[in-house]
Amino acid sequence: MDTEFKEIIEDLLKTSKQADLEDQKLVDNMYRLVRSHDFDMYVKQVLGPRIQSFGASLLEPSGSSDGMVRAEFIKGALYGLCLARDLPSVILSATQKKEDADD
């Protein structure tokens, strides 16, 4: 094997190991976040009511083209709030599935 190819392989392995370390840090942090009382309170008292409010607004008739534009804004905001609520557990779930597949 020529040396240039070996260097490329070594560089890829180094990059892969670094990415694995960063992923593990993310998983560890998400695990602590999801298990914390503070995050639970944030989801229940901050995100939850806003998600319900935006969801209820979407069920109302738009009434006009301005109302349709408003509904699009609400859908985007609702998507962002749901993402903020669910992304940590999705990251953990995806990681768990990967670990199960590796076993």
Question: What is the secondary structure topology, with strand pairs?
Answer:
Layout: H1 3-35, H2 37-59, H3 65-102
Pick out its properties.
103 residues; mainly alpha
Would you kindly provide a written description of the structure presented here, covering whatever features stand out?
This protein has one domain. It contains three helices and no strands. Helix 2 packs antiparallel against helix 3. The longest helix has 38 residues.
Give the total of domains: 1
Strand-residue proportion: under 5%
Low-confidence stretches: none
Overall spatial form:
elongated
Query: What structural category do the secondary elements indicate?
Result: mainly alpha
Would you report the number of β strands?
0
- Span between termini: 32 Å
Number of helices: 3
Please tell me the overall pLDDT. Answer: 91
Give a quick rundown of the structure.
The protein is an all-alpha fold and 103 residues long. The protein has helices at 3-35, 37-59, 65-102.
